[in-house]
């Protein structure tokens, strides 16, 4: 068991190592074989990005925390709304069928296009931020949760039905725990998206944040290209962090799940 | 007079829709009246509609035609009044709950206090011999152990009507005999109405006041046999000639049917 | 009986939508949300803008849909293959799974300029963005479906010493189909969104290209016509997935 | 009441709060405001000014119109359609006195005069700054829909550098400098200067929510006065201004040398004829009319709105500054 | 000499890890040799480790200690050589396949032609009495019917070693008796080695050459009893005194254990 765990870590490290080697050789290839004058923008050397990353670590970290806090607020609101709506839709088949198509319509509205109108409705940058980030988080959570709620075993439903459990209890004790795996699959998609959303919202102006770093470094050209990549890297790390939080939450909340991806005995 | 019965099944038929849209008649014109505190067994070969009938009574299915009344109530009303305790044919445990938590599920729903839950679940775990496994999750239990959890869960709430679908089929003879006796003890103490599905004829005789024999395709209630053995019944009763007579009488109901 | 119920529900859903539109047309939203007429156009204005610009809109719509559909197929396909890889060799795939989710974490707006540099300013770069962002939802969902099997289902296969290919085709694949459809549903929206957002950068065609311009110029009616257009495209893609789902997994609990 | 009564305060009760929506990322482009705030000009007028950063997807005019800010910075030509549609905004000062707009191309693309743009891929900032380009094309009889491909340009110059664009829009103060920093020499770049071509349209101007203005004229005058002083001082000493701007910037993703060059270019646009506070933000009616005419011609607006600008505030402020 | 045995179980123990990290010993030092073509029953109360032992033989679990050999091969090698056919305690049907497709699953894996598949599945469906339900999906079948599908699926591939985990527990007496006879017929025709888990003593006697009695906590192989009843065995054998003697002999093995 232990051995297996550590070999898994080694595999992750191997992946990272392979990616870095590929990255470095790609950059080298662009620079020295293709003589691409856009090499720095297209694919700067990984070690250069890392060196920028560590040189400006303090500043990147501060911005990352800012973006993370915005993302977290949006994520929590969006996920909560997603869960709630999925429950309401499953709760009443009627409501579900009535609002589901409109939910899709709503989701299809391009967020960036909606921003001006949201700004004119809520009139506060902070509130607009949360609404927009929540909007993006909402859908994967709602869809996954809804499909989980719809797949509950007939027998398990019959059991609690035979106790004439109230709807509330049916949801608390059966529907929700039984859809937790699906919900978590949705949350795993949504958590990194929430970071994306927070950064997206920074395009509407903010004092600081990873998005602002990305914007600045794009605006001022090649000299900031490394900073751009370092910021993108930071953003990706934030996303991984979000994913990891959900992953551990899942392991914590669902002890009955046997170790997933159990190895086959072929 | 009709109110003398706890359960009235009148001309009940159940037709499922098959894959190709064709009809599968699971039950046809079943009539049965069950008195309060009666112990009834439903006996019949595989696929004859026993589970279907139990599910109709429990309001988990609606009959295609006919009517079911539970002490004057509709199955729905009786269910809402929480008169039912049900043991399913498969254990139907919630995999996110430990064994104890599974047994406590209906107790929580019926708003028992934490202490009551603890006491009742302890008692039930003891009865089905799983005290040591209280904090295990279902996947850690053997098939028979899981089935016993299902039984413990149904008995925990002390319902007015106990619907049991082949509860002992996965159990060995000794465990089974012990639980049969436990069930009879509980039944005689609490005067529940029990509807017990089984395919084991001797089990049906040992437990029941009456045995209802169902024959398949479509499921028809072909005989209702009174079991006038004295109570309390103990294990030795199985070796009496009366018992043997009933056994062969019921066997005969099925004879010829099996081809 | 169930059939008729469905129909009635759909009718009510339709009526609900109509009611919302009527409320909007009567200026209800403007009162409710305290909006000025120019901040939110009325349905009839949107409709007129739609009619007036129909030909141009269809050109842009086609462009964006092409990007989205191509990217969704590429991304979902790659994501699925990755999930398969991870399920087959969990030891190696596990680390890769983290990398795929890392890609999902890169903000679209940072990816668009990079992709423009790599693949030019035409469709290629937009398809690349869509591909990247539809990968993770598929990978995560498909991996879940490939590995979370019913108790003993895998044991059965093992007892046959079934080839890994048989385990895959006969067990893992059907078991993960419902999850693949969930992912495809998410990807229709993610994909369209990614296509539109990447057109907000260097571009010369597409709904996102038009939308970003038109809205900034305060041409709200036309902007909303494009918003409605995008929504219709999304629903179209979503419905296609739903219909395929209904036929592909009619045995699944969610379809009964 | 959706106007901007919020954010104002009785001067008796401490400083009046005023919000200014910038049109873009913090940079030397707004150095006059930072200068005035940092040097206490606003405080001296009894104002507490908040400068709100913009971004690529933010429409500053919209923010002013909905009351998220009292004042805003925007291109005059993009404000016009908002005013036409009835948004409660009005121009009260012109920050840039002339256009900074260039069309740049690499020498090897052979775009030596505007006529050569035909058949090329030309970048324009669609939605915010495309009209000067259209005006130029029109002047040379090039049909923007048929004779060339207009491409939506992002906030980088990568597309020009990697060759997917033949010509790109640029401001003297940033994009042109970015090209130089990317390694191009001035002689490698062909430049079409729209100001020289007579297609330049007025850019950064100061707008205000007119509903708020109706009740807060005195505050607006104070704000104007401090702002004009800020701009005058900043233009006189771009080095000092850059130091002040730097405090508002994210040091990690900015470059001070670039900001200084940036500031110097801005100074040329804001104070082309000397940095006299009373002449800052001057509203040149002829130039405004020229911009309106171009906007009308290229269908940015259908007709010239009744009231695009309000000169009264500037006059009051300028008077007290003399 | 050792090669005379088809299956050798040497000192096998199996310990599961419990929830709190504590050990659950399911099997302890089990020793058993099984000859080729022998019909062996594993008999024991619920939770004594019968399923565990079967899974160890089938290479679905690895023993904590001890060794299992199948005709000189390791369980893994035997499995890879496709010597096993297994009936699980629960039906384990793939819900996306119809009944026929479920039965055909191993046939597909073993590359039988379409026609062979059709013929075999027809024959198996006939045997378990489900011909009419060939095109149904599992959820449309009763519990006992599902279990019969699992039996049909295992018999379809005609494996060298048949591992059956309580295959008949959900079946009524008649269906059960019929299938028992079918199983014996197939066994005597094909000379398979059968390891049959049951908790039904009379079933074990009726079918087996030897009955292995397991006692629980931890699972220990406490007795191996030769069943020297003549073959072919027919239903009447159950009423012979020899049968009764064996019955009570085995019952005694369990006596006292049940408390
Ligand atoms: N995955 C597991 N984790 C922990 N303990 C387990 C696990 N599987 C089985 N056990 C334990 O091992 C013991 C034997 O289980 P097994 O399933 O072999 O019993 P069995 O003889 O088949 O019983 P039954 O007749 O009820 O099916 C039980 O006490 C059970 O709790
Ligand atoms: N959901 C369903 N759809 C279609 N047919 C069904 C469905 N459920 C049960 N049936 C059919 O109804 C008949 C009776 O099923 P039921 O489950 O009541 O049998 P049973 O008497 O409980 O059998 P067993 O002893 O095997 O559990 C069977 O022929 C079965 O195929
Ligand atoms: C997406 C995008 N739109 C416009 C510009 C051009 N631009 C750069 S700064 C600025 C504000 C004031 O001059 C403007 C309009 C850009 N770079 N990126
Ligand atoms: Mg049944
Ligand atoms: Mg077992």
UniProtKB/TrEMBL annotation, chain A:
<comment type="similarity">
    <text>Belongs to the binding-protein-dependent transport system permease family.</text>
</comment>
<feature type="transmembrane region" description="Helical">
    <location>
        <begin position="12"/>
        <end position="30"/>
    </location>
</feature>
<feature type="transmembrane region" description="Helical">
    <location>
        <begin position="68"/>
        <end position="88"/>
    </location>
</feature>
<dbReference type="Pfam" id="PF00528">
    <property type="entry name" value="BPD_transp_1"/>
</dbReference>
<dbReference type="GO" id="GO:0055085">
    <property type="term" value="P:transmembrane transport"/>
</dbReference>
<keyword id="KW-1003">Cell membrane</keyword>
<feature type="transmembrane region" description="Helical">
    <location>
        <begin position="127"/>
        <end position="146"/>
    </location>
</feature>
<feature type="transmembrane region" description="Helical">
    <location>
        <begin position="226"/>
        <end position="249"/>
    </location>
</feature>
<keyword id="KW-0812">Transmembrane</keyword>
<feature type="domain" description="ABC transmembrane type-1">
    <location>
        <begin position="64"/>
        <end position="250"/>
    </location>
</feature>
<feature type="transmembrane region" description="Helical">
    <location>
        <begin position="100"/>
        <end position="121"/>
    </location>
</feature>
<dbReference type="InterPro" id="IPR035906">
    <property type="entry name" value="MetI-like_sf"/>
</dbReference>
<dbReference type="GO" id="GO:0005886">
    <property type="term" value="C:plasma membrane"/>
</dbReference>
<protein>
    <submittedName>
        <fullName>NitT/TauT family transport system permease protein</fullName>
    </submittedName>
</protein>
<feature type="transmembrane region" description="Helical">
    <location>
        <begin position="183"/>
        <end position="206"/>
    </location>
</feature>
UniProtKB/TrEMBL annotation, chains B, E:
<dbReference type="InterPro" id="IPR003439">
    <property type="entry name" value="ABC_transporter-like_ATP-bd"/>
</dbReference>
<dbReference type="InterPro" id="IPR017871">
    <property type="entry name" value="ABC_transporter-like_CS"/>
</dbReference>
<feature type="domain" description="ABC transporter">
    <location>
        <begin position="7"/>
        <end position="241"/>
    </location>
</feature>
<dbReference type="GO" id="GO:0005524">
    <property type="term" value="F:ATP binding"/>
</dbReference>
<dbReference type="GO" id="GO:0016887">
    <property type="term" value="F:ATP hydrolysis activity"/>
</dbReference>
<dbReference type="InterPro" id="IPR050166">
    <property type="entry name" value="ABC_transporter_ATP-bind"/>
</dbReference>
<dbReference type="Pfam" id="PF00005">
    <property type="entry name" value="ABC_tran"/>
</dbReference>
<keyword id="KW-0067">ATP-binding</keyword>
<protein>
    <submittedName>
        <fullName>NitT/TauT family transport system ATP-binding protein</fullName>
    </submittedName>
</protein>
<keyword id="KW-0813">Transport</keyword>
<keyword id="KW-0547">Nucleotide-binding</keyword>
<dbReference type="InterPro" id="IPR003593">
    <property type="entry name" value="AAA+_ATPase"/>
</dbReference>
<dbReference type="InterPro" id="IPR027417">
    <property type="entry name" value="P-loop_NTPase"/>
</dbReference>
UniProtKB/TrEMBL annotation, chain C:
<dbReference type="InterPro" id="IPR000515">
    <property type="entry name" value="MetI-like"/>
</dbReference>
<feature type="transmembrane region" description="Helical">
    <location>
        <begin position="68"/>
        <end position="89"/>
    </location>
</feature>
<protein>
    <submittedName>
        <fullName>NitT/TauT family transport system permease protein</fullName>
    </submittedName>
</protein>
<feature type="transmembrane region" description="Helical">
    <location>
        <begin position="12"/>
        <end position="33"/>
    </location>
</feature>
<dbReference type="Pfam" id="PF00528">
    <property type="entry name" value="BPD_transp_1"/>
</dbReference>
<feature type="transmembrane region" description="Helical">
    <location>
        <begin position="223"/>
        <end position="244"/>
    </location>
</feature>
<feature type="transmembrane region" description="Helical">
    <location>
        <begin position="95"/>
        <end position="115"/>
    </location>
</feature>
<keyword id="KW-0472">Membrane</keyword>
<feature type="transmembrane region" description="Helical">
    <location>
        <begin position="127"/>
        <end position="146"/>
    </location>
</feature>
<dbReference type="GO" id="GO:0055085">
    <property type="term" value="P:transmembrane transport"/>
</dbReference>
<feature type="transmembrane region" description="Helical">
    <location>
        <begin position="183"/>
        <end position="203"/>
    </location>
</feature>
<feature type="domain" description="ABC transmembrane type-1">
    <location>
        <begin position="79"/>
        <end position="246"/>
    </location>
</feature>
<dbReference type="InterPro" id="IPR035906">
    <property type="entry name" value="MetI-like_sf"/>
</dbReference>
<keyword id="KW-0812">Transmembrane</keyword>
<keyword id="KW-1133">Transmembrane helix</keyword>
């Amino acid at each position: 068991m232990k051995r297996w765990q550590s070999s898994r870590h080694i595999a992750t490290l191997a992946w990272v190592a392979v990616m870095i080697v590929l990255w470095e050789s790609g950059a080298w290839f662009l620079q020295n074989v293709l003589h691409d004058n856009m090499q720095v923008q297209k694919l700067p050397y990984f070690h250069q990005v890392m060196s920028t990353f560590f040189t400006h670590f303090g500043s990147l970290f501060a911005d990352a925390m800012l973006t993370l806090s915005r993302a977290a607020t949006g994520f929590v609101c969006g996920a909560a709304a997603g869960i709630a709506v999925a429950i309401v839709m499953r709760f009443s088949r009627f409501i579900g069928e009535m609002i589901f198509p409109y939910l899709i319509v709503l989701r299809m509205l391009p967020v960036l296009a909606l921003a001006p109108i949201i700004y004119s409705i809520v009139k506060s940058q902070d509130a607009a931020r949360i609404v927009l980030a929540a909007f993006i988080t909402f859908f994967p959570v709602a869809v996954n949760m809804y499909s989980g709620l719809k797949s509950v075993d007939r027998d398990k439903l019959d059991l609690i039905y035979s106790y004439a459990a109230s709807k509330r209890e049916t949801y608390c004790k059966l529907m929700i725990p039984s859809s937790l795996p699906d919900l978590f699959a949705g949350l795993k998609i949504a958590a990194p998206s929430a970071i994306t959303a927070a950064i997206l919202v920074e395009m509407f102006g903010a004092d600081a944040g990873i998005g602002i770093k990305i914007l600045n470094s794009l605006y001022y050209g090649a000299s900031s290209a490394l900073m751009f990549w370092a910021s993108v890297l930071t953003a990706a790390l934030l996303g991984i962090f979000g994913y990891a939080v959900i992953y551990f939450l899942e392991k914590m909340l669902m002890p009955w799940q046997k170790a997933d991806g159990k190895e086959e005995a072929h | 007079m009709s109110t003398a019965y706890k359960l009235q099944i009148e001309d009940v038929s159940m037709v499922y829709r098959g894959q190709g849209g064709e009809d599968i008649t699971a039950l046809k014109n079943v009539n049965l009246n069950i008195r309060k505190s009666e112990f009834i067994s439903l006996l019949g070969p595989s696929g004859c509609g026993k589970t279907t009938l139990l599910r109709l009574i429990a309001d988990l299915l609606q009959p295609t035609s006919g009517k079911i009344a539970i002490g004057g109530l509709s199955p729905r009303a009786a269910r809402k009044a929480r008169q039912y305790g049900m043991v399913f044919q498969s254990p139907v445990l919630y995999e996110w709950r430990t064994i104890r938590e599974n047994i406590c599920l209906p107790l929580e729903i019926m708003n028992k206090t934490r202490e009551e839950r603890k006491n009742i679940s302890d008692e039930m775990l003891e009865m089905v011999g799983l005290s040591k496994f209280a904090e295990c999750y279902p996947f850690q239990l053997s098939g028979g152990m899981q089935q016993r959890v299902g039984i413990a869960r149904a008995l925990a709430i002390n319902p007015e009507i106990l619907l049991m679908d082949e509860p002992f089929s996965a159990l060995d003879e000794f465990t089974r005999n012990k639980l049969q006796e436990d069930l009879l003890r509980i039944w005689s103490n609490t005067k529940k109405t029990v509807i017990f599905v089984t395919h084991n004829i001797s089990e049906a005789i040992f437990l029941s006041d009456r045995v209802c024999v169902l024959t398949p395709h479509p499921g028809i209630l072909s005989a209702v046999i009174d079991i006038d053995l004295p109570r309390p019944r103990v294990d030795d009763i199985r070796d009496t000639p009366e018992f043997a007579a009933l056994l062969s009488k019921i066997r005969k109901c099925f004879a010829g049917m099996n081809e | 009986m169930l059939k008729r119920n469905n129909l009635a529900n759909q009718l009510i859903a339709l009526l609900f939508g109509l009611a919302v539109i009527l409320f909007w047309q009567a200026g209800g939203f403007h009162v409710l949300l305290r909006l000025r007429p120019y901040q939110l156009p009325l349905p009839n204005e949107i409709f007129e803008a739609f009619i007036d610009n129909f030909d141009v809109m269809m050109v842009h719509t086609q462009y964006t849909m092409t990007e989205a559909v191509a990217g969704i197929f590429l991304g979902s396909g790659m994501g699925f293959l990755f999930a398969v890889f991870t399920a087959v060799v969990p030891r190696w795939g596990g680390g890769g799974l983290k990398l795929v989710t890392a890609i999902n974490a890169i903000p679209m707006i940072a990816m668009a300029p990079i992709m423009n540099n790599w693949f030019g300013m035409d469709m290629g770069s937009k398809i690349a963005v869509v591909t990247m962002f539809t990968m993770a939802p598929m990978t995560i969902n498909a991996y879940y479906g490939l590995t979370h099997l019913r108790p003993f289902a895998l044991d059965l296969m093992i007892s046959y010493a079934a080839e890994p290919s048989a385990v895959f085709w006969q067990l893992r694949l059907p078991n993960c189909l419902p999850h693949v459809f969930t992912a495809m549903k998410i990807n229709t929206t993610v994909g369209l969104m990614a296509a539109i957002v990447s057109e907000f950068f260097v571009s010369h065609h597409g709904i996102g290209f038009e939308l970003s311009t038109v809205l900034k110029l305060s041409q709200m009616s036309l902007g909303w016509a494009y918003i409605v257009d995008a929504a219709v495209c999304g629903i179209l893609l979503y419905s296609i997935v739903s219909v395929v789902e209904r036929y592909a997994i009619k045995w699944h609990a969610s379809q009964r | 009441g959706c106007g901007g009564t919020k954010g104002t305060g009785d001067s008796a009760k401490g400083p009046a709060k005023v919000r200014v929506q910038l049109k873009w990322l913090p940079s030397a482009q707004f150095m006059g405001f930072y200068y005035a705030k940092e040097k206490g000009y606003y405080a001296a007028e009894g104002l507490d000014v908040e400068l709100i950063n913009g971004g690529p997807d933010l429409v500053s005019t919209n923010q002013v119109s909905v009351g998220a800010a009292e004042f805003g910075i925007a291109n005059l030509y993009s404000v016009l359609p908002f005013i036409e549609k009835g948004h409660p905004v009005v121009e009260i000062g012109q920050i840039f006195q002339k256009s900074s707009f260039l069309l740049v191309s690499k020498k090897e693309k052979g775009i030596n005069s505007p006529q050569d743009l035909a058949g090329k891929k030309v970048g324009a900032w669609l939605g915010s700054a495309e009209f000067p380009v259209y005006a130029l094309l029109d002047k040379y009889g090039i049909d923007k829909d048929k004779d060339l491909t207009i491409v939506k340009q992002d906030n980088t110059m990568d597309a020009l550098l990697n060759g997917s664009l033949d010509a790109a829009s640029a401001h003297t103060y940033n994009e042109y400098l970015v090209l130089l920093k990317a390694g191009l020499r001035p002689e490698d770049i062909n430049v079409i200067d729209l100001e020289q071509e007579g297609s330049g349209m007025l850019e950064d101007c100061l707008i205000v929510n007119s509903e708020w203005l109706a009740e807060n004229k005195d505050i607006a005058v104070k704000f104007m006065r401090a702002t004009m002083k800020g701009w005058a001082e900043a233009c006189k000493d771009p080095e000092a201004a850059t130091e002040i701007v730097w405090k508002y910037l994210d040091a990690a993703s900015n470059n001070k040398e670039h900001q200084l060059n940036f500031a110097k270019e801005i100074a040329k646009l804001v104070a082309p004829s000397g940095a006299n506070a009373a002449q800052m933000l001057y509203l040149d009616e002829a130039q405004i009319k020229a911009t309106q005419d171009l906007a009308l011609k290229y269908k940015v607006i259908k007709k010239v709105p009744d009231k695009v600008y309000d000169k009264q505030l500037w006059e009051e402020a300028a008077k007290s500054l003399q």
